[in-house]
Structure formats: structure tokens, C-alpha cells
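SAMPLE LOG
Freezer: B-3
Tube label: C17
Construct: single chain, 167 aa
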Amino acid sequence: MLSTGLSARIGLKVYGDNQLVCERLATDVEKVLREKLQGATSINAIRSNGKPYLEFRIDREAIARYGVSVQEVQSIIEVAIGGRNLTTTYEGLDRYPVRIRYRRELRDELPDLERILVSTKTGAQIPITQVADIVSVVRTDECPSRRNSLCQLRNHDQCRYRRNHPG
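STRUCTURE (predicted):
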């Protein structure tokens, strides 16, 4: 199932237009599989929606005062949190990306992220909170998946199955 985005041997995707219905159906399927599918282990309905996200709301007036562009601020956020591949190293036939980002202890908590530094036009370093608000958001009404050009919410069920289970 790895090619479909699931890491289990057996998986089921539930698609629909309503997150609550998708989640309810996925948990219903989980219950049925637990009751009826002998030999199945690790049966889990994966809830992929409603997770918290961080939003960096860039203050365009503030960045203009400091002579910084939106692209520069976004680039700093990208490198600090997600990282960026700088180059590739080769070891025999294997290729490995060389990635740069803040150490985990410098990006794990919201107060840590508030200390990300932005370089101004004059070369001064200011905390990102002077040019952006960082807001924790729980998104539930977005479109995490496109299928047949339609916006659809989705949930997953996955399980492991032992072949030689008696019964």
C-alpha cells in the first residue's frame, strides 16, 4: 500500500465531502474489522484532518519598514523549520541530500520559533515576531486531497494481517 500513501499491507481510504462523516465511517470500519477480521492486528483509523498547524502571518507594513520582502521571510521560515537541501553528496552509487535547518531544540516549541531571526536591509537581526504573527490553527474545512479534480476530505483505516492465523 506504500504507493497509495499508506504504510500498511491492507488499507482502506474513505473519501467524501464532510470531514465528520469521513471520520465516523473510518472509525466504524475500524470497529467492524476488529470484530470480524481474525488475524488482523494493529487496526487503526487514521485521522488525517483537524490537526494543528502553525500560520506565520506576515505583516507587510512591518517588513517594508525593515526593507525585507515576503519571499525573504518565507525563505527564513522554510529553512528554520523544514530545512532546505543545499547540495548532494555521493557515496559510491548512493546520493544523499545535505540539508540545513535549525536544530530540533531550536524549533520544537512556539517560544523557540518566536526567536527565529530575520536579517534586515541594514544587516540587523530581529526576531520574526517583529514582522509576523505566529498563530496555532486547527484546520478542519480544508481540502487535503484531490481525486478526479474534486476537493475531497479523506480518512484511512490500516491493519496488519497474519496469514497463518488459526480460525
